[in-house]
Amino acid sequence: MKLQIIWLALVLIAVEANAVKQGKNVTIPALIVFGDSIMDTGNNNNLPTLLKCNFPPYGKDYPGGFATGRFSDGRVPSDLIAEKLGLAKTLPAYMNPYLKPEDLLKGVTFASGGTGYDPLTAKIMSVISVWDQLIYFKEYISKIKKHFGEEKAKDILEHSFFLVVSSSNDLAHTYLAQAHRYDRTSYANFLADSAVHFVRELHKLGARKIGVFSAVPVGCVPLQRTVFGDKELDGVIIYINVYDTLFDMIQHPKKYGFEVADRGCCGKGLLAISYLCNSLNPFTCSNSSAYIFWDSYHPSERAYQVIVDNLLDKYLSKVY
Q1: CA neighbours within 13 Å on the CB side: how many for 279?
Q2: What span is annotated as the signal peptide, if there is one (predicted)?
C-alpha cells in the first residue's frame, strides 16, 4: 500500500497555487509549522529525549557548520519553504529560549522530532505532541497580540500559511504498540480522523490557509471525504502526494544528480539516526550532496531542494 512519504517541502506548491488563484501580489506574512523531525529546527534540543541532533556531524552543511537541532546536514523543509516565500532563510524553533518578540513575526515551527497524531507516539519518544504544539501556538498568538497588537495577530492568522506534517512516526513506531486495539486499516483511519480533528482545531484558532501532508495511505476515504467535504472549514486545505517523485529519485538517482540512494551519508547509513550519527563515527561521507539521504531516515538538504524545485516547476507549468 503506497504511502505519502514525508517530503514536506513540497507543500510549497500548494502555497504557490493558492497565490496564483488569488493574484500574484498576495503577501504571506508568516509560515507556521506543526509536525515532526522533517520540520523541526531545534525544538527537541532542551527536551529530556534521546531523539535530538544538536551535535556534529548534523548541521555540517548548515551556514557556519552549526548543529542547530535540525535532522539533516543543513536546512530542512521549513527553512526552504520560508525562503521560497521570501520570509527568511531559516525558520526559528519556537522553543528556542533566545527568541525575541520580533523573531516571531515571520513565523515559527512548533515541530518536534519523533512526534505524531497518536498521543502515545510523543509519550514513547518523550517529545512534544502535535496537540501540545497547538497549546504553544495559542501562546504564540498571545505574544503577537501583546507585542504587536490585535491587527497584526489577525493578519498572521488570516493570511499566513499553516503547515501540518505528521503521522509517519505513528506508523513507524507506535502502530505495533497499538496492535491490540487496531488493525492496519483501523489505525490508518484513526490517524486520518486525528488529522481532521487537528485541522479543525487549528481552524477554530483562526488559521485559514492550511497545508496537510500525511503518511496516511493515499486515498484514505475518511480523511479525504471528511476534510474536502467539510463546508464549515472556509479557507484552503491541501494535500500533496509526492510518492512518485521520491520513488523516481530513489530508482534513478543520477537523473537528479545524486550518486547514492540506498543508504545515508552519516555513519554507515543503514542504521544511523540521532546519537547513532555522531562525530565519533568514522564512516560519515564527505560529500553529503551526493546522497539523497543524510541519515537512515532523513533526506539531505540538497535532496529537499531538488524535490522542491522539480515539483514546483512541474506544477507551475500547468498553472500558467
Answers
A1: 11
A2: 1-19
Q: Which residues on adjacent β-strands are paired with residue 260? A: 291
Contact partners, residue 232, CB within 8 Å, separation at least 6 = none
Quote the mean pLDDT of the chain: 80
> Which tens digits make up the pLDDT trace of 34-49?
999 989 999 999 999 9
Return d(Cα 67, Cα 256) in angstroms, integer.
Answer: 27
Burial of 318 from C-beta contacts in 10 A (0-12 / 13-18 / 19+): exposed
Strands (E), the chain: 31-35, 107-109, 161-166, 209-214, 236-239, 260-264, 291-293
Extract the C-alpha cell encoding 223: 480523511
What nine digits make up the cell of 112?
A: 518536534
Of 147, 143, 166, 159, nearest to 206 by C-alpha is: 159
Residues 59 and 74: beta-carbon distance below 8 Å: yes
Name the 3-class secondary structure at 209: strand
Beta strands in 18-169 (DSSP E): 31-35, 107-109, 161-166
Catalytic (active-site) positions: 37, 295, 298
Q: Cell digits for 38?
A: 522533517
Half-sphere exposure of 295 (CA within 13 A, CB side): 25
CA nearest neighbour of 193 among 162, 225, 218, 171: 225
pLDDT in tens, 241-297: 656 777 788 899 999 999 998 888 986 645 445 556 877 666 788 899 999 989 888
Q: Tell me the whole-structure pTM to 2 decimals.
A: 0.85
The DSSP bridge partners found for residue 161 are 31
Residues 6+ apart with CB under 8 A from 187: 170, 171, 175, 178
98's CB contacts (< 8 A; 6+ apart) are none
